[in-house]
Amino acid sequence: MGNVIGIGAAPKRKEDQRFLTGRGNYVSDIKRPGMAAGVFVRSPHGHAVLRGIDKSAALAAPGVIAVLTGEDVKADGLGSLPCGWGISDAKGVPMKEPPFPMLAQGKVRFVGDMVAFVVAETPEQANVGAELLKIDYEVLPSVVGLLEAVRPNAPQLFDDVPNNICCDWELGDKAAVETAFRKAAHVAKLSLVNNRLIGNPMEPRAAIAEYEPGTDRFTLWTTSQFPHVVRFLMGALVLNIPQHKLRVVAPDVGGGFGVKQFHYGEEAVITWAAKRVRRPVKWVASRSEGYVSDRHGRDHVTEAELALDETGKFLAFRVNTLANMGGYLSTFGPNIPTNLYGPLLGGVYTTPAIYCNVKVVFTNTVPVDAYRGAGRPEATFVLERIVDVAASEMGIDRVEIRRRNMIPKEAYPYQTPVLVQYDSGDPMGCLDGALVAADVKNFGIRKAASASKGKFRGLGYSTYVEACGLAPSRFAGRLGARGGLYESATVRVHPTGQVTVMIGTHNHGQGHETTFAQIVSEKLGVAFENVDIVFGDTDRVQFGMGTYGSRSLVVGGAALSKATDKVIAKGKKIASHLLEAAEVDIQFEAGKFSVAGTDRSKTFEEIAGAAYVPHNYPLEVLEPGLEEQAYYDPVNFTYPGGCHIAEVEVDPETGTVTLVNYTAVDDVGTVINPMIVEGQLHGGIVQGVGQALFENAVYDEGSGQLLSGSLMDYCMPRADHLPMMKVETHSTLCTHTPMGVKGCGEVGTIGSPAAVINAVVDALSHLGVTHVDMPATPNRIWRLLQNASLPVAAE
Amino acid sequence: MKPFAYHQPDQIPDAAKLLTSIEDSKLVAGGMTLIPTLKQRLANPPALVDLSKLGSLKGITDGGATITIGAMTPHAVVAASKLVQTKIPGLAALASMIGDPAVRSRGTIGGSVANNDPAADYPAGVLGLGATIITSAREIAADKFFLGLFETALGPGEIITAIRFPVPLKAGYTKFKAPASRYALVGVFVAKFAEGVRVAVTGAGPGVFRVPPMEAALSSNFDPSAIAAIKIDTDGLTSDIHAEADYRAHLVTVMAKRAVDAALS
Ligand SMILES: Cc1cc2nc3c(=O)[nH]c(=O)nc-3n(C[C@H](O)[C@H](O)[C@H](O)COP(=O)(O)OP(=O)(O)OC[C@H]3O[C@@H](n4cnc5c(N)ncnc54)[C@H](O)[C@@H]3O)c2cc1C
């Protein structure tokens, strides 16, 4: 029998055995008997009136089984895609929430908007059918940019949404902020753009739906981060399928990053179609299709002002942001640039007054929603950039100004002026650790070495905090969530003592099968290999809200921990009977139930056996079986954070920025598996570096065409773009999660963009450069240097 | 991908005949460019004529003052060729910078030159070295071959069989990779011959082109400093989401200097 591998150990990931040997089971691997193929026909226009669709030629094509359009959706009386959050403006007026039909009705509002679904015997026949559809569009001018969309004469996406503004949202004490600005010794100002991103998970989205007339049951296999939520949103709100008649399975999923945490129209259309054609139907997106239909991320235009006293103390912070929603409201859309943005503007600082206004705006682009970090990288970027701007304008060292304003360790729990209360943290400790780990002391030597090669070297800091473990239902409810944010776990102990866990989170790269097994192994004293984690199937798992917002360990792991505690409690009752001792005298340790002060004990396996073979068992007071379930709804978010230090080298001749060193010292609370934490940090940092230096989703104003619609035009970060990273943890324990965990899935993406851009600005500051928008491409840097009229030395 | 007929002739004349007799049929070499366009349904040829069975199109031969590379020779073979590395190291370096290992293993010099992508690397090497394109019908000088955006002098049914490169005194290639695609945002090939210097630029405009002022300056002084002050006119250069025309123009000078450096080292 194997060993206990518990909390703090770094076993290799269980799931990698199947992934690395090609034995994963992804949606596109699944084949159902009699399966037909579906293809979505998407709008080639950013904005157009849909005047009519002639299906006849397509329907006559060989192999074509059905062609479905928005008219058919309407005729069947189906709902529109729901938004999971309803935000309101300062006066309490709810956001404008136009319907988001699963197939376009009347108008198309972005390139990629779905117009029809063609089902045929083979994918090729479905493609031919799709090409034969005659779609009559009356093309309208598109508007894609935020500043353009709110102009008085801009094209209007919806008749009843004036100026394309979905909601004019605010947070904080406006008057207090204004008073503080009047008293300020210095005001730093910054205008910036937070670039639009495309998640690009390795596995494109896919779905298969099947209807069984015999039982009147539907099954949907989908590339989702939250199958139970899809079952609820799609079943209850779109297709009117009772929950017990709908099974949603999200098997192995090849990366999500947020892209797969929404309920997509494709899921509803294919499920509806499966019943109409009485055949299982499969759809697998191409990469190109993903570019124009996977929800995009970020896309802000921001004006920020920071008021400081003469010593560099922050007095007040004011932020005005335009946030792009794209053509419709996606599942979490309006929540991201508001509730996950404004409350983070306090950062790790004691700024007493903060005000934030966010105008949430519709444009003719793919709907924008959560992407790893979701709102928090945007907030961190604004804050950590303006801190640098203020420092440089006031002639205060960038580390020093941070220290002067940081929340001291002793001040936790710390109430910010923007709703959230940090339970624990030590930003100064992370900063001190990072300064040493990054060898900041010798930066001058490295800078001189770069200068001797004609290169500019810069160092950038980001001392940040985030709010994750997306949870407290009560808090979320106040902010406009239309659902709960708890998590659930069932621990099933088999008669032989092995354990199967059913959990509502979803593993798509995070290593849950390993981490969660370590928790159970540690707590129950069973061998690591004797614990399996089941997720992603609404027929097997009781319920769950899924994986996003760094919530799996923090909320799901907590539910698992609680359920495990219940197993132990029941085991003690059984043991007390078998060992003929009082329950209070039973101790459980290292997989053994024993009577305190004696050598009498029963192993975990013996107790499990007794529970299922209850010959000698307290049936009067206890049910047989050993299986427990727990739901967990936390009292607060968790607040991981830390200090990231980026070091870059700029080639002034070409404008190329090279990231040469990267250091992260993060407080993620208790570390269950240090290898997995390091991996999550690496991945997160790379995505943040991608935003800072490479990635940019670009639309053509007017036509609404996506110009960066392929991997040839949208630059993903690659291994050779990156240095070896130094990743360390400096943990304080979360005071309210059962294991003291805080979550680590997004910290890398949240902390890194500001660190990288601050480094680039530092490298160029001697030329008067004060800000660089992301991505800091060679062309952009060269342009800045041209404007700074740099005398480029000839080689 | 739409259905198509597939032919694998083993004689060049058979291949040429298939190509002219089946309207809209296409040659396929490495398939690295053609197959993606078929998959995206952008091209719909009724037939593909595969060149891979034409053994005479593969391999690299030493002609003393020239090197001849068969059209079906993959980039990886050119990059690793001792002969090319010794006689025209700049050309071996160019081949090693194309795409990724998979693309270099499949993609061929003939396919690349026939395709004449405005950001491809080989056209810079072929024009920079003043090579000769040998086809199933004739020989074409590089200066007459590249006719702009994806356009070449190839006639209907004409198949590139090999490319003959004169061995220069010195040559170098430098490429500023487009961040996403890693094709040339700007690539410059510089070759020094007894009779003068040739400078060919790819990526910057709609097709590969030469830079006479740089050629003149380098012919009298083959040193980066000779061209440092030469600026390229931005007229006709490409502006897109990756780079604006004036930035591309600037890069031509920077890459040309670095190519000279590479040739000298
Ligand atoms: C991911 C990726 C990255 C790439 N990066 C680069 C890069 O950095 N630099 C670069 O230069 N290229 C790059 N390429 C292109 C690559 O070099 C291709 O291999 C090349 O352009 C075409 O060669 P092929 O042999 O694959 O031709 P194919 O795709 O088979 O054919 C291309 C075209 O040429 C025609 N053709 C092929 N052979 C002949 C012949 N002998 N005579 C006449 N016509 C012919 C075909 O009919 C077709 O129209 C990249 C490609 C990919 C997929």
Automatic annotation (TrEMBL), chain A:
InterPro entries given in the database record: Ald_Oxase/Xan_DH_a/b (IPR000674), Ald_Oxase/Xan_DH_a/b_sf (IPR036856), Ald_Oxase/xanthine_DH-like (IPR016208), AldOxase/xan_DH_MoCoBD1 (IPR008274), AldOxase/xan_DH_MoCoBD2 (IPR046867), AldOxase/xan_DH_Mopterin-bd_sf (IPR037165)
Domain Aldehyde oxidase/xanthine dehydrogenase a/b hammerhead, chain residue ranges per copy:
21-141
What Pfam family is a match for this entry?
A: MoCoBD_2
- Source organism per UniProt: Bradyrhizobium diversitatis
- Organism domain of life: Bacteria
Q: Which UniProt keywords apply?
A: Molybdenum, Oxidoreductase
Q: Which residues, by range, are in coiled-coil regions? A: none
Supply the name of the protein. Xanthine dehydrogenase family protein molybdopterin-binding subunit
UniProtKB/TrEMBL annotation, chain B:
Protein name, per record: Xanthine dehydrogenase family protein subunit M
FAD-binding PCMH-type domain: from which residue to which, for each copy? Answer: 1-170
Origin, by domain of life? Answer: Bacteria
Q: Does the keyword Flavoprotein apply?
A: yes
SMART domains in alphabetical order: CO_deh_flav_C
Read off the Pfam families from this record: FAD_binding_5
Q: Which InterPro entries match?
A: CO_DH_flav_C, CO_DH_flav_C_dom_sf, Diverse_Substr_Oxidored, FAD-bd_PCMH, FAD-bd_PCMH-like_sf, FAD-bd_PCMH_sub1, FAD-bd_PCMH_sub2, Mopterin_DH_FAD-bd
Which terms are listed as keywords in the entry? FAD, Flavoprotein, Oxidoreductase
